[in-house]
Amino acid sequence: MSHDDPPPAPAKKKSPAEEAAEKRREKLTPGSLMKAVIRSGRGDATPADGDQVILHCTIRTMEGIVVNSTRREHGGKGIPLRFVLGKSKMILGFAEGFPTMLKGEIAMFKMEPKIHYAEDDCPVTPPDGFPKDDELQFEVEMLDFFKAKVSLVMIGA
Description:
With about 160 residues, the protein is mainly beta. Helix content is about 10%, strand content about 30%. It has 2 helices and 6 strands. Strands 1, 2, 3, 4, 5 and 6 form a 6-stranded antiparallel sheet that branches. Strand 2 and strand 3 form a beta hairpin. It starts with 15 loop residues before the first helix and ends in a 10-residue tail after the last strand. The model has no long low-confidence stretch (mean pLDDT about 90). It catalyses: [protein]-peptidylproline (omega=180) = [protein]-peptidylproline (omega=0). Its EC number is 5.2.1.8. InterPro entries: FKBP-type_PPIase (IPR050689), PPIase_dom_sf (IPR046357), PPIase_FKBP_dom (IPR001179). This is peptidylprolyl isomerase.
């Protein structure tokens, strides 16, 4: 290194949120999250941190019994879920699976309990009677995603 070379850039310090996300990802093991594409999506863009995702989700046992759904035909209200990647509280399987999806894609994610609602310190509470200790199938339809808009409002000024 000559005296004209700039000093090496300091290593970027990770935020506490980034460190927590990395630690959480350590729970993923081969086979704990499996994806099968049911219907291909369009384009080649996938959602990233800071994007709002809008989707339908139907959760089934491995025997095919629907235990929860956003879809009317499966007992839900018909209202899609909305999450902001990297900001919203969600199960680990969603945090890892959503960024692999294209708009319009329908995928089936098979998840071991440790990466859905039985995860240690799971940030989301399942409904009463939910089979959180079972391996489950999550059928997800990615309706749309886009950069989330953040509005700051000054109060009392």
